[in-house]
Specification:
By secondary structure, the protein is mostly helical. It contains six helices and no strands.
């Protein structure tokens, strides 16, 4: 029974991080923390980017929970380990498989994994703070829905753009 409960707390940490990551990505990284996240949407030859600070930031609660879990609050250990597992999975999938920051010859066969990769690439079609789609990591809406949503956003942006006054030709 204890293994089941520990596993449940582990899953709470793992799945909970997807919710936290989605909300952080959507409302903070593409909001007031864009000054850090912008580096992830721009081409670079440098092995590190300002966006990597989010890995450090996200690791701190996990480290704190693991510490508490080894000092009298055992269930915190499993939540912290779930969060750490999410971080490891995120690094492996996002940085290595999707963005190929470390070159490995991996070719995903799963349609679901391919959809996650494609959704993230669609997210990167937007190079600015606003107007992106697909902020999650473990779940992505179907690709046709993401493309349609991106078209809607771009059409709305174009309709709000100031129009140039027609030039008058005196002639």
């Amino acid at each position: 029974m204890k293994i089941l409960i520990n596993g449940l707390f582990f899953l709470v940490g793992l799945v909970g991080m997807e919710v936290v990551a989605y909300l952080t990505h959507r409302y903070l990284m593409h909001g007031p923390l864009w000054f850090l996240h912008e580096s992830h949407h721009k081409p670079t030859d440098h092995p590190l980017e300002k966006n990597d600070w989010f890995g450090v930031i996200f690791s701190l609660p996990s480290i704190g929970l693991i510490y508490l879990g080894t000092h009298g609050y055992p269930y915190m250990l499993w939540i912290g380990l779930g969060m750490a597992a999410y971080g490891a999975f995120y690094f492996g999938f996002h940085d290595i498989v999707v963005h190929r920051r470390i070159r490995v010859n991996l070719r995903p066969k799963s349609q679901y994994v391919k959809r996650l990769i494609q959704a993230h690439m669609i997210h990167h079609w937007t190079k600015e703070r606003d107007g992106a789609v697909s902020y999650g990591f473990l779940y992505a809406r179907p690709i046709p829905e993401l493309r349609e949503r991106l078209k809607e956003i771009r059409a709305a942006d174009e309709s709000r753009a100031p129009r140039e006054a027609p030039s008058s030709s005196a002639g």
